[in-house]
Amino acid sequence: MTREVFVHSEVEDGICHVRLDRPDRLNAVSEELYADLEAVLEGVAGYPTVRAIVLTGEGRAFCAGADLKAHADRTRTPAERRAYVWAGQRICRFLQQMPQPVVAGVHGHAIGAGAEIAWSADVVIAAEDVQFRLPEIGLGTFVGGGVVQRLPLLVGHLRAKQLLLLGRPVSGVQAAAWGLATEAVASERVQERAVEVARELADQPARPLRLAKQALNRAGALTPDEALTYEAESLLECMGTDDWERGVQTFTDDRGDREGR
């Protein structure tokens, strides 16, 4: 018997639109939702014609985190618990390491795993009134998605402790001010703005964009010498490509136009 699918995707003009689609549970994560999202991301990663990804949630929320009702309704075996936990970790790793840039359009609520998924994107377009929250500690559980490493880099240790240890909510406006969101817009503009930014990214040359994303993801782990080496090797990889030739020609043409005025 086929089950309901909780993640839908479509590609339009080089942008893959990925939608969490479990609105009756505010897109709360489950084994099935994780499996559907992983399958979509695996498929998209291998398609060079997809230049950017937009990730959103159907209904009133981006993602309300763990489905606590499902947790209460059944007891998982140790093996099932491990599979569930690592499914969530794989999703965040996938988003962080996708060759294409990922833009998350976040509205309503991004709680627990929902916040962790959103913060795994490269660009976060947040509704001004969205609520980001990490309530795990207060619920007797623990965070995921690499936030114990990423949050201090984004907001500093004291604010990271406020978010993790106290589970304080953060609005979209506050998230943008703290560096947890790229920008905050009116709720009705989240989807539109996420697509606009994805279009900007999709129009960039793919190779240097991918190399830059990889470098920034490794920034905290690179020594100054390693960073210099990575930059040099990345530049050498880009030189001589069609994108490089077009960029040089465009720069030369623009400079000639300015000097001719």
UniProtKB/TrEMBL annotation:
Pfam families: ECH_1 (PF00378). Gene3D superfamilies: 2-enoyl-CoA Hydratase, Chain A, domain 1 (3.90.226.10). It comes from the Bacteria. GO terms for molecular function: isomerase activity. The keyword Isomerase applies. Signal peptide: none annotated. Keywords: Isomerase. Coiled coil: none annotated. InterPro entries: ClpP/crotonase-like_dom_sf, Enoyl-CoA_hydra/iso. One of its GO terms (biological process) is fatty acid beta-oxidation. PANTHER family: ENOYL-COA HYDRATASE, MITOCHONDRIAL (PTHR11941:SF54), ENOYL-COA HYDRATASE-RELATED (PTHR11941). This is Enoyl-CoA hydratase/isomerase family protein.
